[in-house]
């Protein structure tokens, strides 16, 4: 009898805690805290749409503000790929469904807040690589570059080292700094450093 009363009290306590947490969340949704700078002006739906459409590329894909589809497809100025490889990789990428293409770009969205925090340019040296490209390079074809991986560098060796250290401590997925090449690999696989 006594244990039933304790269980009922525990359930009641959890119920009350749940209601309290929900109330607090709803309060902050409807009455957000204003920072010292005041709230930003409300955006209209048209302004929100314009902000997003500014980031839609020629294939109808959305990219974050500091990275482009061309960079991801290895066509940026810091690309480590030959012109022939770039054409082959883009052709293979375009064979993917729009959903798969947009999923591949999730690595760029994951990287965007790190770029904003660090405050200097990050360049993609190798982004998407098709399975066919990987196999042609005598690799296994299981690289995260076929889905959610990129290699990076910055304008200078010092900034690349700074970025490498920052990502080593903070990146959410796979990380490797190739010191001999001066590039950083990151991916959205399990958290690991090697």
Write down the secondary-structure element order: HHHHHHEHEHEEE
Poorly predicted spans: 26-41
Principal-axis shape equals: globular
Q: How far is the N terminus from the C terminus?
A: 57 Å
Portion of residues in helices?
40-55%
Short characterization:
The chain is α+β, with helices and mostly antiparallel strands and 194 residues long. The chain has a domain at 67-193: Muramoyl-pentapeptide Carboxypeptidase, domain 2.
How is this structure best described in words?
With 194 residues, this protein is an alpha+beta fold. It has a domain at 67-193: 2-Layer Sandwich (Muramoyl-pentapeptide Carboxypeptidase, domain 2). The chain has 8 helices and 5 strands. A 5-stranded mixed beta sheet has the order 1-2-4-3-5, with helices on one face. A hairpin with a 4-residue loop joins strand 3 and strand 4. The longest helix has 29 residues, at 2-30. The radius of gyration is 23 Å and the shape is globular. The termini are far apart. 22% of the residues are buried.
Helix-strand blueprint:
Elements: H1 2-30, H2 45-53, H3 69-72, H4 83-94, H5 98-104, H6 106-118, E1 123-126, H7 131-136, E2 149-153, H8 157-170, E3 174-178, E4 183-187, E5 192-193
Parallel strand pairs: 3-5
Antiparallel strand pairs: 1-2, 2-4, 3-4
